[in-house]
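Researcher: Structure prediction, please.
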Amino acid sequence: MKKIIAVILTLCVAAGFAFAQSEASALPEDELQVDLTKKIITPKNQHLDPEDKTGKVVIEYTPMVDEVRISYTCMYNLYEQGKAMNAILGCLEDFTKDNNYYHYKYMEKDRERYYKDNRGIKWTEYTAHVKFTR
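Model: Predicted structure follows.
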């Protein structure tokens, strides 16, 4: 009796290996390539105050998910949060119009980061994370 069960079990396992499908052919949707590349955009109109000589706005855009990380960088001693917010809002409005978006919302709280570069100069970076809708 034990031999018959062992033979039947062995045949079932062998049949399972013989008729198994490959992993690649299981779902054709798995073969799709998703493009999650990011585009770094420096806006032509930075929306900076005339006395702001060190400020710079950079947009990191992911078109597949319609998300943007926009950052304003300025020297530490010249940084004012209000000026940073105004520059970012102006650039976001231009980006919305240029890329045919309808509305945007903030994904998380804005961040401030303070750091030194390799020459020892202190900088401040104000960053916002935004999701656009069409």
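Model: The first strand starts at residue 39 and ends at 41.
Researcher: Thanks, that helps.
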